[in-house]
Amino acid sequence: MAEIDSFFKKMDEFGASDLHLVAGHKPLLRIRGEMQRLKYHDLEDDELKRMLYEIAPEHKVKEFEETGDVDFGYDFHGVARYRANFFKQKNGAAAVFRQIPEHIKTAKDLGLPQVITKLAGLPRGLVLVTGPTGSGKSTTLAAIIDEANRTRKDHIIAIEDPIEFVHQSQGCVINHREVGLHTKSFKAALRGALREDPDIILVGEMRDLETIELAIEAASTGHLVFSTLHTTSAPKTVDRIIEVFPTNAQEQIRSTLSDGLRAVIAQVLFKRIDVKGRCPALEILIATPAVRNLIREGKSHMIPNAIQTGKKYGMQLLDDSILELLNKGWISPDDAYSKSNDKGRFRPFLKNPPTDFTEA
């Protein structure tokens, strides 16, 4: 057993989502969204490097020494899988490990709306799950892919950096490809995927213009593509994709995106106050003809109105989802206020409403 595995046991014991190891500090766990220090001595740089290098592949150690950053996946058999990130900082080495459970939760386990489950059955198009880091994007995507795996008979190619949730082929054949290990880059893997007879393509993250362009192209040519972006709402997701492209190409990409987009799920995670655990609030945009027309005409600012009038299709605004969680007594008013888009809507729930500096 590797020396670092004792920390992973602590993660499992406390139900932590992340482990932070930083030279010059005590180890920390993120538990229900909050950082907590372990009773342990401050880590020395040499001590930490010894632990980290024990579990890292040799080529990843070399990459870390050369660049100061590296990502990879680590399996602690019988406990969990971890997404590892090593980076250099002022006091030396540091690392963050995100736990990826071995058991993939279904959409029902996660309490996701039925409309999200239906996305797994789409014949083609682009589906995006967005949100800040640590908002549960990968968990939601894994649930959708699991649904497709159990109910379809197709070929799924998952391209990630690193591989996170590992799906066992059921009705579908699933090939997992890790950037840097099995392929040079997301864009190289996407180009290759178009020649590998896929029905469904999972792109771990749309990081750059070429990857975004290839993902949209794949979605527009008969494939079902799932991916993630670090955006906080459906309208901002559309704007982010368009703005990545040069000005002279934006009109064309609006047209292509409007044809290929099928749904955007924007989510944030909340700490529950009634029981241990966390729960997501979701904004759901379904690309109806009206929504596609707004995208084509560059009127993304009108998408919230389309979401409000599209409830029969399963659409919902993020703030409506947050309000529902608040009314259930699952989350605190302060948390609801801090993560909402329309702060004024949630101020009446606060005992001591803060002075919002943005109102000055």
Overview of this protein structure:
There is one protein chain. The chain is of the alpha/beta class. It folds into 2 domains: 5-100, 2-Layer Sandwich (Beta-Lactamase), CATH 3.30.450; 107-345, P-loop containing nucleotide triphosphate hydrolases (Rossmann fold, 3-Layer(aba) Sandwich), CATH 3.40.50.300. The protein is 37% helix and 24% strand. The protein is built from 15 helices and 13 strands. The protein has helices spanning 5-14, 45-55, 58-67, 107-110, 114-118, 137-151, 186-193, 209-220, 234-244, 250-260, 289-296, 303-308, 318-328, 333-339, 343-346; strands at residues 18-22, 28-31, 34-37, 69-76, 80-89, 92-100, 125-130, 155-160, 173-178, 200-203, 224-229, 261-271, 278-286. The strands form 2 sheets. The chain has a 7-stranded mixed β-sheet, sandwiched between helices. Strands 3-2-1-6-5-4 form a 6-stranded antiparallel β-sheet, covered by helices on one side. A hairpin with a 2-residue loop joins strand 2 (28-31) and strand 3 (34-37).
